[in-house]
Amino acid sequence: MKLTQLLVLGISAFSIVSCTTTKKLKKSEADVKRMDSINKVIQNHYADCREQHAADLAKIQSLEDQLNYAKTNNNQILGQMKDLSIISGTQAESIKKSLDNIGVKDAYINELQKAITKKDSMNMALVINLKSAIGTLDDKDINIKVDKGVVYVDISDKMLFKSGSYDVTENASEVLGKVAKVLTSQPDIEFMVEGHTDSKAFKRGDLEDNWDLSAKRATAVVRILQNKYHVPPSHMTAAGRGEYMPIASNDTKEGQATNRRTRIVIIPMLDQFFKLLEKPQN
After folding, report:
1. What pLDDT score does 272 carry?
2. 149 in helix, strand or coil?
């Protein structure tokens, strides 16, 4: 084999190896970027959880203070009644009920603590799953956050709809498909799809105003989730919010673009947790 041929083969082999290495490097960089993005969401959620947890602990502390006061008060009464013969039947029954109520409150506090821990754990898992599923999308166009125990997914209108229309774009299929995959994997949650607009006056064709546009956009998203991705319709609600719940100033184009969004509000179905909160505290 001639020297020229050997050089050509050598260069070709080097090019193949170099190309493969470059691809691997790019994939590794993309993986690192994705993990950094997920980690950022986790850190933000952790901060939200700490804030919510502090509020929950304050409520629990208040209940414990009430419980300790009741215990102390009843112990003082019982300590003063050394001669049980002076207690009438009615008084004895009243004291017994008070002691029983203390036990009920103690059990209530324990169950409340368990429910709060379960709620925080479910929200953390949900956020991580959502971010992992849609982590390849631009963070400027899709945002996930947790506020007071509720998970919010904000998707910019340019990812889902044509301008001034409720016709869903082809790009929407990818976005909604990834979200639907997470939602259908956790059957114990319900969510609301909200349409939001900027404050600019709007009227076009069969659309009367921003209320109309936002409601029809929310309904369009719900229909796709139901018909294409088989999300149970009983778990979804569609709502139009119009221009009345902005998250940025409408005085700038950037703020208007931020306000034009579809928001998915995910609320875990913690029936046991809410039933505990509704129980009468004797």
Report:
1. 46
2. coil
User: What does the alpha-carbon distance between residue 150 and residue 271 come to, in Å, rounded to a whole number?
Assistant: 15
Give the pLDDT score at 276: 47
CB 48 within 8 A of CB 146: yes
Q: Which 8-state DSSP code applies to residue 206?
A: T
Q: What is the pLDDT of residue 220?
A: 95
- Positions of the chain with pLDDT lower than 50, given as ranges: 82, 85, 272-273, 276, 281-282
Residue 146 domain flag? yes
> What is the Cα Rg of the chain in Å?
29
Query: How far is residue 103's CA from residue 281's CA, in Å, rounded to a whole number?
Result: 11
The residue written with tokens 């004291």 in the block is: 95
d(CA 77, CA 66): 17
Q: What is the CATH number of the domain that holds 158?
A: 3.30.1330.60
d(CA 223, CA 217): 10
- Determine the structural domain holding residue 156 and report its residue range: 134-272
Residue 141 lies in a domain: yes
Question: In this predicted structure, what is the pLDDT of residue 104?
Answer: 64
Q: Considering only CA atoms, which of 34, 275, 49, 212 is closest in space to residue 138?
A: 34
Q: What is the pLDDT of residue 262?
A: 96
Asked if residue 61 is part of any domain, the answer here is no
Show the tokens assigned to 219: 């309904």
The secondary structure element, H or E, covering residue 239 is strand 236-242
Within 10 angstroms of residue 14's Cβ, the number of other Cβ atoms is: 10
* Domain-embedded: residue 249: yes
